[in-house]
Design brief:
- This protein folds into two domains: 168 residues, no CATH class; 55 residues.
- The chain has 285 residues and is α+β, with helices and mostly antiparallel strands.
- A four-stranded antiparallel β-sheet has the order 1-2-3-4.
- The longest helix has 16 residues.
- The chain starts with 5 loop residues before the first helix and ends with a helix.
- The relative contact order is 0.09.
- Helix 9 runs antiparallel to helix 10, helix 10 packs parallel to helix 12 and helix 11 packs antiparallel against helix 12.
- The chain is globular.
């Protein structure tokens, strides 16, 4: 039986983790997984990451901070890609489990960004400089010094190395600019977490999905609102989802709060949202 006090405590811990410096990406992502499965013990995921890190450490030829980026990438690809089997395929985009770190660790399948989190967190545990690179339409990792010597690897493809031209080609294919000076910059942890939660929201709002998946979208929005930086429009989305899931009073209050927030800059939008709030309260009658 689930502990009724577990959810608030879990949310409080998530808020604490995402505001820490540095952010523990692994714990934050495991806490997301616990939203989908409240019975989850996040310690299991942390132990698995530690085990994978031990396997990587055993293959390093010396201190991690002296390992050449290409050699470090090769070790990570061998241990995480070839041996552990972490990778992805197009079908994984339709599966919520591909966005949940506990499931990714269990199944060895996931979206590019979750597989990259595995690489980042395993690398961190052994002292390898692995960081996320948020390309338009795809997510990869950089290994080394982003301002000096580094290599790019694609965990979704088992750790295949990418050239800078490859990365630019991916950006072009997704409608991005290959000349963006920030194209290969390390992604901030908060941006990584928001992108993961956005993926979950998109999955849950697919019109072909069952109506009850509004609950999944709701927790993804509510966790997004706990991040230090998030789009203000998520407040409106939360209000709408609360109404959809039957909390007309709470949803109306959230919509009114959002209308107050944007009223000074967009009166028309504010009035539209206030009308949505009135309609939500009318459903109580």
């Amino acid at each position: 039986m689930n502990d009724p006090n577990a959810a608030p405590a879990r949310r409080a811990r998530f808020a604490e983790v995402v505001r820490a410096d540095p952010v523990d990406l692994a714990e934050a992502c495991l806490l997301m997984g616990a939203e989908a499965d409240p019975a989850l013990d996040i310690k299991t995921g942390l132990v698995e990451l530690d085990r994978l890190a031990g396997a990587v450490a055993a293959k390093l030829t010396g201190p991690a901070d002296t390992e050449a980026p290409a050699r470090a990438a090769a070790v990570l690809a061998l241990v995480l890609g070839a041996r552990a089997g972490f990778g992805g395929a197009q079908a994984d985009y339709a599966d919520l489990r591909s966005s949940l770190l506990p499931e990714v660790l269990r199944r060895r399948r996931g979206l590019p960004i979750l597989l990259s989190v595995v690489w980042i967190e395993v690398g961190r545990r052994v002292g390898l400089p692995v960081y996320g690179v948020a390309l338009p339409g795809h997510f990869v990792v950089g290994i080394g010094d982003p301002d000096g010597e580094f290599v790019l690897a694609d965990p979704f493809a088992g750790g295949r190395l990418l050239t800078v031209d490859d990365a630019r080609g991916i950006a072009i294919g997704a409608g991005g600019s290959p000349d963006d000076p920030h194209l290969l910059a390390p992604a901030l942890p908060s941006a990584i977490l928001l992108r993961i939660l956005n993926n979950i929201r998109v999955w849950a709002q697919n019109p072909q999905q069952a109506p009850e998946r509004a609950w999944t979208r709701l927790w993804a929005v509510e966790l997004s609102l706990l991040l230090p930086r998030h789009p203000a429009a998520l407040r409106r989305e939360r209000g709408t989802l609360l109404v959809q899931t039957g909390d007309f009073t709470g949803g109306a209050a959230e919509l009114d709060d959002f209308a107050d927030l944007v009223g000074a800059i967009d009166r028309a939008l504010a009035e539209t949202v206030r009308r949505e709030a009135r309609e939500a309260r009318a459903r109580l009658n």
